[in-house]
Design brief:
By secondary structure, the protein is an alpha+beta fold. It has helices spanning 4-10, 29-44, 47-54, 77-82, 85-94, and strands spanning 15-20, 58-62, 66-71. Strands 1-3-2 form a 3-stranded antiparallel beta sheet. The termini are far apart.
Length: 101
């Protein structure tokens, strides 16, 4: 049985950001792909993402219409990364649907 000190050293707190695209399932396949790529590029461009990735303190889990980012370096990183929502929303809306609904 491991002692408390060695167990404590292995414990780590993670901070998670869940992000997705509203209305994703209503889009055409090519629109879905374009919006996912835009979302990925915007998130990957954030300082928090780049720093955590460089420190190997980031885990990304795709969810189909978005993803989960697990930050293990900074408790504020998910919130700061999420603040790109205005940029994301604007860029994703600028990808015009190709069909009428």
């Amino acid at each position: 049985m491991p002692d408390r000190e060695s167990a404590k050293q292995r414990s780590e707190i993670a901070h998670v950001l869940f992000i997705d695209i509203v209305g994703y399932s209503k889009l055409l396949t090519n629109e879905q792909k374009a919006r996912i790529e835009t979302l990925k590029n915007i998130v990957r461009g954030t300082e928090q993402y780049q720093r955590a990735k460089a420190e190997e303190k980031l885990l990304g889990l795709p969810t189909g219409d978005g993803g989960a980012l697990v930050f293990r370096n900074d408790h504020e990183a998910p919130a700061l990364c999420a603040m790109v929502h205005r940029t994301v929303r604007g860029r994703l809306r600028s990808i015009a649907p190709t069909s009428s609904r």
